[in-house]
Structures are given as structure tokens and as C-alpha cells.
Amino acid sequence: MKNTEDPRVLSAESRLQMAYRVFKGAFFFGRKGLIIWDSWEMWIMQIFITPIAQIGFFAFLSVYLRYPLAATQFIVIGNAIQAMSFSAVFAVANITSQDKWQGTLPSTMVTPANRVALFIGRAWFQVLLSALIAAAGLLYAATIFGVSFAQADFLAIAVVVMLTAIAMTTFGLLISAVGLYMRTALIVANVFLFVTMLLCGVDFPVSQLPVWLQPVAWVIPLTYGTEAVRMAIAGASFQSILGIIGWESLDALLVMVSGFALFTGFESLSRRTGRFEEY
């Protein structure tokens, strides 16, 4: 008689149920593995301090340089969305590095739990946190920096912000795969954060980049997110930005698949070289 508890003989439905339980458990407990400062005070600071600091710096710089009002508001909206990257990318990329530092990565990697459900569950808390950071940034844009939301499609903005948070988290997961082999993935995450500020239409349009760099910009989901949010604030309907939403969703899916392939490759390499315990 077959052992129905053996994961090798479980039905597809049972596998899905187990994956869901892994995802749920990783979501509720994963926040403790993603950030050291496990307190509501630190989360509140992330949500409300990060966007105002970033937006304020670039907005006041544009005023000092005597940019037109439209250019300043372009910068304000871009940085309101980009501010989510510190949570969506940096914190998620730190998953494997944090596990190495705590000495729990070897135990995590030998568990029979579904890898995809486990790591997506641990990252999902940061998806919600990232969306809240962007929402706070847009609130500051309206109340402090004078961006008009009179014609805005708020449903479209909400959908794009949530989708962008998910899409940027997939990049965080991709970078975290590097942490399986390197001592830490935070170096790569740091570089990537500044790359998004340069390439993704945050402070100036993508069309002003060198021609050879523009295709690279559209590989990063944040480029679609900033473009779509600006359009929605300007009065574009949800239907009119469906094309951008579709491309961003496809981009996120491709990044997730690439991240899974990279994770699998680095996992195999780290097993052979004993890099799981190196920190």
C-alpha cells in the first residue's frame, strides 16, 4: 500500500494544497526572515519616511535647477513609485543572505517544501509593504508637492501600483538567487536600485536615454509602472493603459521564470561547492 503522505505520490490537488500551506506559513512568518527590525515602528518609518525623503530630495533639486513645474511633477511621481524598490528589491534580495547570516539556509534548502511557494510566500509581505510605500508617496505628491489628481483614474492607479510591487519583487527574488552562491546578494541589489533610478523614467523620460540603453530600460518592470501611473494621474482610463499593464505582467512573468532558473542553477552549484554556509 502506497504512503499517501510521501510527496512523491501525492495527487496534483494535494500538491497544490501543500504548496498553499507552505505559502501561507512563509507569508506569516517570512517577515522575520526578511528584515532584522521586526517592529511596527520600523515598518511605519519605511512607509512614511522613505518616500518623502526620496521625493523631497529630487523635487527640491529640480526647483533649485529651475525646472518647469511639469518637469518637477514628473520627477515627483516617478520617485513616489520608485521608492517601493527599497522594499520590493532590497529586502527580498536579502532573503538568502539573511538565512546565511542566521545559519538557517542549509536547513531551508534540504526541506521537501515547495521552493516556489516557500520563497514567494516569504517575499509576499514585501509586496504589500511596497504598495503601501508607493501609496504614501502618491499621497505626498498630491498634498505636499501639488500634483493634481482631479482627473485621475484611481482604480487604474491602484492596479498599476500593486502590479508594479509584484513585478519588482520578482526582480528581488531573482537577485536573491545570486545570494545562494555569493556571500551576499546585497551588492547586486544596491547596484540594481540605482540602475532603476537611472533607466526607468523616474527623473527623466526614457526617450532621453542613449538609443542603445532604451531597450534595457523596458526590461525592468518599473519603467512600465511609472509610465502607466503618470498616464492614469493625467486622466487616462483603465482601458487605455491595458497595453502597458499587459507588457508589465509579461515582463514580471519572464523575470520570475528567469529567477527560478537562476535559483535552480545556483542551488546546484552551491551544493557542489559548499557555499550555503559561507558568509
Would you tell me the structural class of the helices and strands? Answer: mainly alpha
Helix segment count?
A: 11
Strand content: under 5%
Number of domains: 1
**Secondary-structure element sequence?**
HHHHHHHHHHH
Q: What is the CA–CA distance across the termini?
A: 45 Å
- How large, in whole angstroms, is the Cα Rg? 20 Å
Average pLDDT rating: 85
What is the number of strand segments?
0
> In percent, how helical is the residue content?
over 70%
> What characterizes the major β-sheet?
none
Task: Identify low-pLDDT runs.
Answer: none
Shape: globular
Task: Give your account of this protein's structure.
- The structure is a single chain.
- It is built from 11 helices and no strands.
- With 279 residues, the chain is mainly alpha-helical.
- The chain has one domain.
